[in-house]
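Render this sequence as a predicted structure.
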Amino acid sequence: MAIIFELDHTREEVAIEIEALQQLSYHQEARYVHNRKLPPLIETYKDIIRAEETFLGIYKERKLVGLVAYTLEAGDFWITRLAVHPRWMRQGLGKELLSRVLFLNPANKCWVTTGAKNEPAMQFYQKNGFQQIQEIKTEEGITLALLCYEQ
C-alpha cells in the first residue's frame, strides 16, 4: 500500500512535477485516442498552479509517480485527472488513488471522462464500478466517454 499525500499544486516545484508526470502519462492516452491535443498535454505548470482542484499524489524513489485530482460540484464530484508514470502502471497505484478519492468524498455520484478509445482506462474505470453514461465529442475532435460511479 502506497502513502498518498495531498499535493500543494500552487507551489511551483510541485506544479512542475505534476506537469512532468502528466506529459509521460497522457502521452499513453494520446496514442489510444490518436490525438495529441489532450488538455493535460497542452497544460503548463503555470496552468496547474491556477487549477481549482484538489490534488493527491504518490511518491516512489522521491519522484511523483501517480496523481489524482478532483473537484466538487453540486454534491457530486468529478475526477479531473488521473495519471500514473508509465514505469509504475499496472501496479495498483491508480486503484489506490481512485479508492482514496472515493473514500474521502462520500458524495452521491462520482464522474470522470476518458478517451472512449482508451481501452485500458475504460476497463479500469468499469472494473472499479463506473458505468458509461454517454460519449462526448470535444472541440479537438476527441471522443470522450462520460462515466459515473454511484456510492
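Summary. The mean pLDDT is 89. The helical segments are 12-33, 39-42, 45-50, 93-104, 119-127.
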